[in-house]
Amino acid sequence: MARRPRKPRAPRGPRQKKERALAGTGSIVTNFRQASRANLKGATLHQTKRSPDGWSAIDLSRVNLNEVWVGSGMHILNDVNTYLSDVVEPTHKNSSASPFCTIILGASPEYFRPNGEPPGQEDPERLEAWKARTKAWMKETFGDDLVSAIYNGDETTPHVHLAICPTYLKRPRKPDRKKPGESDEAFLQRCEDWKTAPGTKTLSWSSNEVLGRYNSFGHLRQSYADALKPLGLEYSLASFEPAQYPEPKHKKKHLEDLETERLEALDALEEERAELAEERRKFEQDKAAFEEQCAEIVREELRSATEEAVRISKITMAAGQKVAARIEANAKYDAEQRAAEQTAKLSARVEKLARDEERLERQKREIEDQVSWFALFTSKVELALQRALDRSFDTTISRDQLPASPSTTDWIAARGGNVTHGLKLEFFSLHSSTGVPIPLPSQLKDLVRSVFKSIQGFAQCWRTQHRQLTDLRNRTVAIAEATETAEQALADAGRRLAAMRQETMDAEAAATKAYDEHAELSYEFARLDEALAPARPAYEALQNWLSELQDITPNEDDTRSAKTWINQWMENDTADTRSLMRLTLRLQGEAYTSELEHRLKSSDISFPTFSRDIRDRWREVCALPFGHQHRMVRAMKLIDRENNVPLFLRDENENALAKHIAQQRAQHQQRSIPPLARQFLDLPEDTQTKLGAALKAQDDYNATTVSSGLTM
Fold first, then answer.
1. What's the rounded Cα separation, in Å, for the pair 71 and 80?
2. What secondary structure does DSSP assign to 343-387, as a single string?
3. Are 420 and 397 in contact (CB under 8 A)?
């Protein structure tokens, strides 16, 4: 990637002295840095572990003043990772190790505390004005790339920490030429699609609209100063321009001026050295006089200090007596306070015991209710077992035997709409006589369902065994009757034996006659084979071509077309069509279709034959009546819940659709049909049908003849 040409510098003015020139009511304070993930981790630790250190004068009593302006909390790195989950990060070797930006914004202390107040006592109006303008500036400047903004009010001067993830919208490359075999309409459509194609949000410092500019930190500092200028805040220094150097053509004169300045400085230094020597002599004289004066003052102070010490000792004794009396009064007050605290603790404990007693009483009532319910449930289980033994557990009963309530209607609808004795007993185990659900824990509800499901299985098993026992008894009676019949038949068998021998001789004569007829049929078949011989090559060529068409492999265009159709189809997903779309996807599997057809046999609807092409199958599903759709969707949900049939989802449907598209493409390419197959297809449709049936029958007859060991 070619480096962007550097913009020419503006002409610099003369260098000014670096004096702190305060403007207005204060000055802005900024810090812009390029940051890596390690730097963001350090910034996160600074926010989450608020303890005084060598860098930050943190006051723990003012930590509650900190605010989160942007982000989910104090963990900056988590907010950055969350934002980057929807952003593409460059992975090439030239990507920056420090793609992020951290910024600190603030103002000088004299703005927040104009009268010299201590930290923590900032002017409320000035602080709120600075907050409002800072928030507006950072949101307008960085937009969505501002992932974290945390205000610190527990340090010496209020400031805010920003974390920026610079991104840009990377658009796809504009189509500039046609692909091989692409039509003009397809190329123009591809160009139109490019105009509306959404871009990809990508992490990049250099391509970012704000930070990618030349001297971006300088522009941001100037922009922030302009935003806070109405508050009287400006730059903290009078100029940020570097030192100015002479042009090369004036270099000699510049060196001569420097030499002159050096000599003048040496002369001034010698004069200053002489003045310092004279001042040192005078200082030594003044020092000796001062030391003598200090000695006299020390002696006088010692005498005064001795007198003062005597006076202070008397005052100290009187103060000691007062302190002892005060300590005794304080000890009495502390004892009363401790007694009051003990009384409060005992009162709280009594209240807690009362609450515990109420809770235990409530639990006792709940246990009593569960015990009474368990007795009811046991009686229902006994009735269910009795119904299972007399084979009436699954007998359908009237809906009127259950109470009329919304919960009853929902419960019956969830179990297929039919009411049996077993379902009635299960219903009254979970509901009251008025149909109101009994408040039971989920474990007890699962127990009821499991018990009645086991009883249902036992009832079905017992019904099957009873039927088998009845059948066995009937067969025993039939065997006894058959024995008597067999004894009578045995006598008749002797009489028929002679007749059978005669029939055997007649059968041998018939077999000889059948062999002769078979020989004649073989001769007729040979004539038919000779008549069908000219049409067989064309028929076999057509069958081979159709077999190759079934085995055709989709190419990349077929796969892309299939994925495009599936994507557009699934983008139209709504709450009304979501279940039908899932059903259309699953009908691709033959095992799933067979299982669905088997489950729908009990209903009064006929299971239609669906196309293997998902496009035609979707139209067929949408054309079904609403009742058929509803029952098929309900059966599909039951199969999905049992998870005993492999599901055909998006990938399998894309592969199948790609194969259908490939077959259609091959069918449209007429030149790929073999000439012999084309001859067969040129025949009239009626002739094709009759010839195909005759040739297939001939093949089947040959196969039967070979398997039976006969030859023509």
1. 9
2. HHHHHHHHHHHHHHHHHHHHHHHHHHHHHHHHHHHHHHHHHHHHH
3. yes
The tokens for 698 are 């001939």
How would you classify the pairing of strands 100-107 and 200-203? unpaired
Cα-to-chain-centroid distance, residue 71 = 19
- At residue 154, the 3 state secondary structure works out as coil
Residue matched to tokens 């050096």? 262
Query: Which SS3 state, helix, strand or coil, does residue 507 take?
Result: helix
R_g over Cα of the chain: 51
CA angle, 661 then 662 then 668, to 5°:
90
Backbone dihedral region of 15: left (phi > 0), alpha (psi from -120 to 50 degrees) or beta? beta
Closest CA to 459 of 555, 385, 537: 385
DSSP-assigned beta bridge partners for residue 170: 200
Token couple for 342: 């003990």
Contact 167, 202 (CB under 8 A): yes
Q: Note the Cα 249 to chain centre separation in Å.
A: 69
Rounded to 10°, the helix 536-550/685-708 angle is 90
pLDDT tens digits for range 380-422: 777 777 777 777 777 777 777 777 777 777 777 777 777 787 7
Instruction: Report the pLDDT value the prediction gives residue 21, as an integer from 0 to 100.
Output: 36
**pTM of the shown model:** 0.35
How many CB atoms are located within 10 Å of the residue 167 CB? 25
CA 626/CA 634 separation, integer angstroms: 12
- Long-range CB contacts (within 8 A, 24+) of 14-19: 14/244, 15/239, 15/241, 15/242, 15/243, 15/244, 16/238, 16/239, 16/241, 18/237, 19/238
Q: Which residues, 6+ apart, have CB-to-CB distance to 405 below 8 Å? A: 434, 435, 436
The two tokens of residue 111 are: 């703005």
The answer to whether residues 635 and 601 touch, using CB atoms and an 8 Å cutoff, is: no
DSSP string, 397-436: --GGGS---HHHHHHHHHTTS--BHHHHHHHHHHB-TTSP
- Which residues have a Cβ under 8 Å from the Cβ of 6 and sit 6 or more positions away? 214
Token pair belonging to 180: 């091989």
CA distances from 327 to 331, 335, 661 (A): 6, 12, 101
Cα dihedral: 117, 123, 129, 130 (round 10): 20
Dig out the tokens for 63 from the structure: 């930590």
- Nearest CA to 408 out of 395, 423, 421, 394 is that of 423
Helices (H), 556-644: 556-571, 578-586, 590-599, 614-623, 626-642
The full set of domains in the chain, from first to last, is 26-172+193-234 (3.30.930.30), 388-490 (no CATH), 552-673 (no CATH)
Tell how far CA 62 is from the center of its chain: 38
Residue 129's pLDDT is 93
CA atoms of 51 and 549, how far apart (whole Å): 76
Q: Tell me phi and psi for residue 103, to 5 degrees.
A: -135, 140
Look up residue 113 and give its two tokens: 């505390």
Give the pair of three-digit tokens for residue 678.
Answer: 């084309």
Distance of alpha carbon 522 from alpha carbon 702, whole angstroms:
11
Tokens of 658: 């790609």
pLDDT of residue 646: 61
Q: Which helix (H) or strand (E) holds 525?
A: helix 442-532
Question: Is the Cβ–Cβ distance between 459 and 391 less than 8 Å?
Answer: yes
The pLDDT score that the predictor gives to residue 532 is 56
Q: Which residues of the chain have pLDDT under 50?
A: 1, 12-24, 238-246, 670-671, 709-712
